[in-house]
Amino acid sequence: MNQEQVVVIGGGLAGLSCAVALADRGLKVTVLEAAPGLGGRASSWAEAATSDVVDIGPHIFHSEYHNMLTFLERLGTSRLITWQPGKVLTIASQPQALALEHAPLPAPMSLMPSIFKAPGLHLEDYLSMAPTALRGMEFGEEEVEQLDAISALDFLRQEGVSDNMIDWWWRFAAMVVTNVPLERCSAASLLRVHAQLSGYKDLHFGFGAVGLGELYTDQATKFIEDAGGRVLTSVKVASLLLDRRIDGVLLDDGTKLFAETTVSAVPPQQLFDMLPPSLATQAPFDQFDQFEPSPYISCYLWFDRDLETERFFAHKWSPRRLNYDFYDLCQIRHGWEGRPTVIASNIIYSHRAHGMTDEEIVRETVAEIAEFAPLAAQAKVVHADIHRIPMAIPCPTVGFERKRPPARSPVPGLVLAGDWTRTHMPCTMEGAVKSGFTAAEAVLAERGEHLQLAIPARTYDGIAGMVRSAAAGKRGVPPAPESQG
Ligand SMILES: Cc1cc2nc3c(=O)[nH]c(=O)nc-3n(C[C@H](O)[C@H](O)[C@H](O)COP(=O)(O)OP(=O)(O)OC[C@H]3O[C@@H](n4cnc5c(N)ncnc54)[C@H](O)[C@@H]3O)c2cc1C
């Protein structure tokens, strides 16, 4: 019987980062990807009408994406990120836009001077935030269990945050950073990401200067193949082979592939569908069909002229809002400078747009761009591409954090990876790569090699770091934000 050393199911960021980390340790890895191309939810392709490379939807990086950036460094592409170090974000509020910029103050105060200029917020709204800001700095993984049981909206109301501040900031933050409305979001998921975003000095965003997939898919394939492994596309795994341990996989075409270790790097529902019936009823596997998808609709619009807009801007939450985040790709992509504007945007948790035709979505999206960049109202859209994505990330609804499984599964021979596994971070590219590195650690540990590959979150900077250390000291846990749980 031929036996592979390691089979990785799924050629997205989690699967490829795991396979690269194992190839780096000299292992021969076989990656199996069901789709014709690699990259999964962080993939890109040449758009048919324009030949421009577009992503599944625009993605954002930030300066604390240490696992993702280490992965790109290993592949030689980390320089292909367009960073925006000065301005964090422009919020297209009325009567004037609000630029969030870091002032030379310690974390978490550096953005406060900008936030104090927000139109429509008053002194009592800012004061109402103080207890939550403190809770955010004190937040540690040891609190996740308790906070995961309540919604973020209930939590903020309990903490005394004003309705005005909830509508101005928190409903927007919940949609853009957790991809789920505030009333459905786990308080643990939202507070964790709030702590991460406010705890670091000068945290800033970056965007792929090339297509997302161009950052890592071919490079990872070469890396894995150079170490003697294989990367196979259009190969779908039908089920896991179970005999006291997971012995490998059964492919859709009936072929059996035996492996010393099998890594699942697919989303939870797809893993559930692959489980042998005896496993599907056991914890934690019995929960894997309970993760609710957050759907997206991503819009790419090619205009006939320069809209003289910003590289990256966002709209505030409103119940009627379609798109939240907008990216001028001509200010992001290498070689696109000077072209008529191409805007990419995301309709997050897109249920409200599902009944709309592509033409209706384009019309509404142009109107939303024109609220910030008035030239869009006169401009012509020469081409539009609308991507409907049924599962962008699993929704971090109440109870989500407790369902996330660790990399080591209870069944020998099976290791789990993917943005949805227990990474102590939101479901993001950074989370996916961290899960890939953590899964590689688990594979190596099964072989007797004990290494740390995944990079934990840094201790917070400035006052945020001091408050977190004091809170951790009181609770008797180490001060790093993710050291428990
Ligand atoms: C539109 C959009 C915008 C986003 N924006 C951001 C952002 O701004 N910042 C950010 O950090 N993250 C963002 N994300 C999230 C990020 O893309 C994901 O968290 C990450 O790509 C998940 O990677 P993964 O490897 O865990 O899963 P996936 O990318 O889903 O990879 C799983 C792979 O497994 C394959 N597969 C499934 N079933 C099988 C099977 N039976 N056999 C073989 N292969 C199989 C799939 O085809 C897929 O390629 C966004 C996602 C989307 C869709």
UniProtKB/TrEMBL annotation:
The keyword Transmembrane helix does not apply. InterPro entries: Amino_oxidase (IPR002937), FAD/NAD-bd_sf (IPR036188), Flavin_amine_oxidase (IPR001613), Zeta_carotene_desat/Oxidored (IPR050464). It comes from the Bacteria. The keyword Oxidoreductase applies. Its cofactor is FAD. It holds the Pfam family Amino_oxidase. Residues 13-444 form the Amine oxidase domain. Keywords: Oxidoreductase. Coiled coil: none annotated. PANTHER family: AMINE OXIDASE (PTHR42923:SF46), PROTOPORPHYRINOGEN OXIDASE (PTHR42923). This is FAD-dependent oxidoreductase. It comes from Massilia norwichensis.
